[in-house]
Each structure stands twice: as structure tokens, then as C-alpha cells.
Amino acid sequence: MATPHSQTLSLYLLSLSFVVIIPGLQAHIGEYDDYWRERELQAKRNLEKEYHPNPEEVTKHFNDHVARTLLGFGADNNNNITGRELRSMRKKSAISSCKATNPIDQCWRCNPNWEKDRKRLADCILGFGRNTTGGKNGPIYVVTDPSDDLLNPAQGTLRHAVTKDGPLWIIFSRSMIIKLKEELLMTSDKTIDARGANVHVAYGAGLTIQFMNNVIIHNLHIHHILPGNGGLIKDGENHIGLRTRSDGDGISIFGSTNIWLDHLSIYKCSDGIIDIIQGSTAITISNCHITDHNDVMLFGASDSYTPDEKMQVTVAFTRFGKNLVQRMPRIRFGFVHVVNNDYTYWNMYAIGGSCHPTIISQGNRFRAPRNIAAKEVLKREFTNPEVWKHWDWSSEGDVLLNGAIFIESGDPSASKKYGVEKMLQFKTGQMVPILVEFSGQLVCSPGKPC
Ligand SMILES: *[C@@H]1O[C@H](CO)[C@@H](O)[C@H](O)[C@H]1NC(C)=O
Ligand SMILES: *[C@@H]1O[C@H](CO)[C@@H](O)[C@H](O)[C@H]1NC(C)=O
Questions:
Q1: Is the N or C terminus of the chain more exposed, i.e. has fewer CB atoms within 10 Å?
Q2: Where does the secretion signal sit in this chain (predicted)?
Q3: 195 and 281, same structural domain?
Q4: Which pTM does this prediction carry?
């Protein structure tokens, strides 16, 4: 009797004679069959649906939550924060039993029973990804086995979990290193929740979120990600697809919507750390810790791909740590709220872009490198000032250290639209050490606040 797997394979071989092979397409889809055509069509509908016509409503909502958290820490709306006050606030946050210091974390980390209420996490998202639910409406799936099989993944492996149909909340029975033989092709409505274990996706291929909707990835280490050779890879419960080479991105988001990446520690990937391209929107990246990398985040990969006008991303509470070079992020088209992040170092620049993106930078801390030629936070790529002076790139409440320079452009009142009045009077960038204190992967034990 044929196994479901060999049925799929023979179906695949049968259909191979009818499919169009699209060479060199960045989609890395080697066999563009009905399954992927349908996923692409759905993704195009999702882009229209999930694009928010009033981004200022989302940025204001975000800033409002941060302001309330900081007031809870004893900040005063009218006072400046001195170094001494800052230190005493940090102490306060460190000695209290709950160490959640920003509004996303405060939503769940103080609960000692977080393990019994894992899905609570899905109610904690702020920013453009806030409608993401991941696997909230599905059962729990426990990964017990770090092994990987591309065509017929065993029950209890990560690849088996992420290719199942329907919503699934994926957790881990123990700490493990998962070395992916080729890219992990996820399907819609999944949460990967590695709290309570120390899980590394490393020394192999990375995660691919392509033509799909609704995923949460939480509390993983992702590092030493290598390019893949492609070939046949299971990419759905009843489907195996043919892939071309993968680039070696940590997380590649391609034509996908409603994504939340939180508390990830990512470093040393061959290509990008996180790419968001080809019509993706409704995305929040928060509480991540990123180090040791050249091209960090690419949002929009093509000058001719104008659907990226609808790309909306929040980057928040993230620590851009040691040995980073550029693209934190680098943006084409689209609208990006870069808020309350700590930029501790860059080699070339921090934030850049082309093709008139909107960049709202609020309450970040930018520490320039020593190199006198690299003091500018921003880089406008391949564009002369006559053109870029019309791009809305604004700074509000940012703290510029070590000679960092932020040259704004566009409508000088633009930032007012994006919730300045919701920010506190003082420079919220000063609060960044508190807001990002627990960025990256967290060590959480059942029965204790995380
Ligand atoms: C407090 O804020 C005001 C206005 O922003 C500024 O002029 C002053 O130097 C600040 N004082 C301190 C102690 O930082
Ligand atoms: C989230 O869902 C609400 C209700 O459907 C919708 O109005 C909003 O545009 C969606 N997106 C964001 C980013 O809030």
C-alpha cells in the first residue's frame, strides 16, 4: 500500500510534465504548481486586507502603551530623567519579582503560571503585527525530536509541526539544537513558542515564511544559518515542493502577512538576519537581540516591486548589539515605525533606504561608532537630495550619542501625525536601557515569572 508520502511524490512526478519552471525567480520556487499559485493569489488578497489605511493610529496606540508603562515605573511627565533617577528605576525593575519593563512583556511575563497560559502571549502584540494570533486557535504540539527529514519528517519534529494544516501552538519538551537540512517552509496559523527550553536553530538552513498569513515566532536562538541547495522539501501537509537554492537568511518573510517575531537572539547568518519582501505587511519585530552581522534587515528587495508601498512594519525594543554593519533596517517603499530600540554600534549606518519609504524614528538610542565618517544614523541610497528631501524620515525623542547625526527630511510636521503627543515630554530614548533590558531569548522556568 502506498504511504501518503509516496502518493505525494508520485503526484509530484506526474505533474512535473505540466508545470512551468520559472528560473531564477527570487521566490525560490522551482516548481510553480497549483498549490503555490493558490498560495500566492491568497497572499495578494491578504496584502490588500491587512494594510492599515491610517498608520498613525497604530503608531499612536503603540506610544500610548509605552508611556503608560513608563509612568508605572515612576517617570514624571514633566521632569527630565537624570542618570541617578534612571539607575534607581532600573534597580526598581530589577528587584521587583516581575522583570517586565515594556508593555509587550508586561502583558505576560509577570504571570508565574505562564506555562499553563501560553496562548496569552498572542494577546500581547503591539504595532503593525498586532492582529496576529499564530496558533492560538489550535492545539498544542510538542516537539521532542531535533532531527530533520525533508520529505517525510517524523512526528515530534519541528518540520512535521510547521507543515501541518490548521492552527498549531508549537512548544518544545526540552532544550535542543535543530540543524535544518534545508529551509523550514512554514504554513499559516502557527506559533513557535520555545519558552521553557533553550532551542537553537543553527548550523543549517533558516526559516521561510512565504505566501502565508499569521505566524508568531518566540524565544528562539537563530544563528550560523547557511545557504541551502534546494530540492524537494515538504511544504504542506499533503504537498512536497521543488525549491531552488536558499540564501541563508535567518528568517525570510516573502509575500506574507500578520507576523510577530519576539525575543529572538539572532546572529551570524550567511545572508540577512530578517528579510521582509515581495508584498509583506502587518509585521512586528520586538525584543530581539541581534549581533555579529553585515546586512541585518532588508525590507523590500526590489526597486520595481511597488506593491511594497503597502508594507507596514514596527521594529521595537530591540537591541542592535555588537559587530553590526548596516541595514537596521534598509527599506524600500513602505512605512516603518522604528521605536524604542537600542543601537549600540554600526559600522556603516543604522537605518537606510531608497524608493521613498516613510521612516518614523521615535525614542531610540543611537550610539555612533568612533569612525568620524560613520556618524550619520541614516543613509539614502542612490538618490540625490532634490529627490529625497520629499521623503518623510523623522526623528522624535531619539537620543543621539557619541556624535550621532540624524538628518530628517520630508514634511517637518509629519512626525506630529504619528503620536508625538502620546510620548512623554522627556526624550523616551533615555528610557531605552530599561525598555530593552530583557531583549533576546529568555530563560523561563515553569512556576516562576519569566
Ligand atoms: C531638561 O529639559 C530641558 C528642555 O528639554 C533642557 O533644556 C534642560 O537642559 C534639561 N535639563 C537636564 C538636567 O537635563
Ligand atoms: C486589525 O484588525 C482590525 C479589526 O478587524 C482592523 O480594523 C485593523 O485595520 C487591523 N490591523 C491593524 C494593524 O490594527
A1: N
A2: 1-27
A3: yes
A4: 0.90
- The CA 57 to ligand 2 mean position distance, Å, reads 10
35 lines ligand 2 (CB under 6 A): no
Is any atom of ligand 2 closer than 6 Å to the C-beta of 128?
A: yes
Number of domains forming the structure of the chain: 2
So what's the pLDDT on residue 120?
97
Considering the domain architecture, whether residues 315 and 354 belong to the same structural domain is answered as yes
Distance 406 CA to ligand 1 centre (A): 20
Percent of the chain with pLDDT over 90: 77
Q: Residue 424 CA: which ligand is closest?
A: 1
pLDDT attached to residue 222: 98
Nearest CA to ligand 2 atom 7: 52
Residue 283 beta carbon below 6 angstroms from any ligand 2 atom: no
Are residues 21 and 160 part of one domain? no
CA-closest candidate to residue 118, choices 194, 197, 186, 201: 194
Does residue 346 lie within any of the structural domains? yes
For 83-132, write each residue's pLDDT tens digit. 566 666 666 655 555 667 899 999 999 898 999 999 999 999 999 999 99
Q: Does residue 327 have an active-site annotation? A: yes
58 lines ligand 2 (CB under 6 A): yes
Which residue owns the Cα nearest ligand 2 atom 1? 131
- Check residue 24 and give its pLDDT: 38
| Domain of residue 236, residue span | 44-66+112-435
